[in-house]
Structures are given as structure tokens and as C-alpha cells.
Amino acid sequence: MGRRGMPNSHLRFENCKIPVENLLHKENEGVEVLMFGLDGERTFTASQYVGLARSAFEVAYKYAHRRYQFKKPIYSFEGISFKLSDMFMEIELNRMAMVQIARMLDQGYYCRASVAAVKAKLADATVKITQEAIQVVGGLGYSEDYPLERYYRDAKVGQIAAGSTEIMKFLISREMIKMWGK
Prior knowledge:
Blueprint: H1 30-66, E1 68-69, E2 72-73, H2 78-106, H3 112-137, H4 139-142, H5 148-158, H6 165-180
Antiparallel strand pairs: 1-2
């Protein structure tokens, strides 16, 4: 459906012996190392979706200024300009949250729940923003003449890649128990 330029593959290790000097971390602690790596991957994925949302917004914004209805650009109608304003607010708030998470990870903070929250919210926001951009552009937005249909397909992958929205909610619920108990 989306992200056609990024193929997926499988890698399987069977009966592999790893010399002690080649271990990346202490024995039986690999899951935590993997999870830390996933925090970075999820933040990187979130950054991609900020760019994707911004690109969809820009296509819709430019179109709204070029397309005339009743001798006025459709941007002059509140139904369109407010929709674009909402898209801009979502992009900016999510961009700032993603940047903050990246800074926290760079500084070595443990922030798994926050990473999961930002990744899930940004993926959902990007789907919504690409849908709204298609609405602004109308039928052309659904055609392959505009990049919006591809942006939508790519945005949908964000709700699955690097952990689905449901997995992010599971991680958040588990981290909340660690933070505040039962």
C-alpha cells in the first residue's frame, strides 16, 4: 500500500553461536538493548511523518491559493482556511514534541512512554492531515496527478511501522505502571 520505495525482508538466525567477545551487552539483557534501539527508530519514524504531513499540507495550501471558486481563491473560505489552520497546528505541535523526544534520547533520558505517545499521535495526525489535504484538493487529490494519494498510503504505514498504534498504547500502559504503580 505505502512506502513502496522501502522493501521489507526477514532475517532468521538458527543455531548460531556467538563468542562472548562479540556480545553487544550482557547475556539475557538483549531485549532492553533492542527496546532502546526501538525508541530511536520510533523517533526517527516520527520525524519522517512530520515531513510527510508538512508536504501534504503544502500541496493543499498552494492548491487553495490557486483554485478559484466564485471569483475568489478557495483559501478565502473559512471552511478551507480553518481546515488548513488545523493542519498547521497539528504539524507544529507534533513537530515540537518529536524534537523534544529526540533531545531527551540524545541526552540519555529514559522516555519510552513519551516516545510511544509521540509516535502514535504523530502517525494518527499524519493520516488525518493527508486525508484533509485530499479533501481540500478534491477529486484531483485522489488522482495520481498529485502526490497526495501516495502521501496518504505512506501515512497509513506510520500507524503500523516501528510498532502499531495499539502496541504504542500497550507500551504506554506498561510504562505508566512502572512510573506510578498499580
